Amino acid sequence: MQRELDERLEKLKEQHIPIYSFSRLETINRCLYESYLTYVKGDRGENNIYALLGGKCHDTLEKIMNGEATEADLKNTVQEELDYLDIMGIEFPKDSKGGDSIREGWIANMTHFCETYKAPNGKFETETLFLYQTPKGRWLQGYIDLTKINNDGSISIYDYKTSSMYTAAGLVEHGRQLVTYALGKMQEGYTVKEIAWIMLKYVDVKFTGKKTAKSKTETEIVKTIERRKIGKELSSYVESMLAAQGYDEVDIEYYLHNFEEQNRLEVLPKEVADRFTITPCVLKWKLDDKTLRECEEYIDRTIDKWEKLDANDESAYTPRSFTRINKFGKEVDDYFFCSNLCGHSKECPFLHEFFDKRAAASNDEDDDLF
User: Fold this and answer.
1) Is residue 185 situated within a structural domain?
2) In whole angstroms, what is the distance from residue 240 CA to residue 370 CA?
């Protein structure tokens, strides 16, 4: 989408003041060599399939919120982009056995999203510019996917994500982007009520049921479920509800089969389906003094790290490690990002050297006797 020019941004550029983006900070901390190629050499590399599809989803959602498209356009737009990427030979990563389950899973999740999406209620702005000056005088800029203008004048900030659910350990790292948005808008004088991701591949399901088979009483349950797995994840609860309604084993089996196959509440009897409320997954993140200060320090620390490097010394820009230590203290390979998501994977000499060494080590090993 074409973004309007902003006077504040233009003035900073006229004064030749460096302006960073949050994605640039992430790149610097992820891999200095990737950052060197991107920001020193000016080589942006190739976009991966997730970035391309995610960008198309974002653009269409923005049009829907601005009244330039409807919910019905979403599925066709995503399918057209998938067809285009197939023609261009841009593929999803293969699963560990070389299959297409990653592609199939993404398509199943996003198809469900496209078919069930309803625009949220309220007053919203899309692609809102934020500018933020750190305590050390550095500047960041970016655009917020969705900003809700609350009735009390405060705002809530939302970021669309087509990625998988974040691990607990990764929430702080991913949360900094939302906190950065909040810092920028707070610096403008806004009160930020909430920051959250809208996780497009997931839903929140609320219902009343027994938490376990041994539970004697029912309670309110809220589960976050991958969209393509709604039928599978809720099957045991539905089975109990159908039995309680007096359905026999044959009918229960019929309904469960259809529910798991079609992944829709509509295939169930109304008295059971109506017990479930399914809404898009909104994953909130903390906004307090601790996360605000941590984010400020992260921004300045990262820019300090970058500005100390000599742009004329390529050797100073070291690559990320292709291995990591797992929870058992064992060194394991960790190159999924480099192979599948980095735009410079085809030209990275460090990645090629790593694979060459792995291949040589594999050839040196004796075959197992059995």
Assistant:
1) yes
2) 48
Of 272, 301, 330, the position where a domain reaches its end is 301
Q: Which domain holds residue 154?
A: 124-201+282-301
Do the domain assignments include residue 16?
no
- pLDDT > 70 fraction of the chain, expressed in percent and rounded: 95
The structure tokens listed for 338 are 């480099």
284: which strand partners? 196
| Predicted model pTM | 0.90
Point out the domain boundary residue: 280, 313, 336: 280
Instruction: Give me the percent of the chain exceeding a pLDDT of 90.
Output: 84
pLDDT higher than threshold 80 for residue 339: yes
Which of 151, 133, 149 shows the shortest CA–CA distance to 141?
A: 133
- Provide the pLDDT for residue 255: 97
Q: Which of 143, 173, 172 is nearest to 160 (CA)?
A: 143
Token readout for 33 is 């060599």
Q: Which residue has the tokens 């050797």?
A: 315
Q: How confident is the model at residue 211 (pLDDT cuts 50, 70, 90)?
A: confident
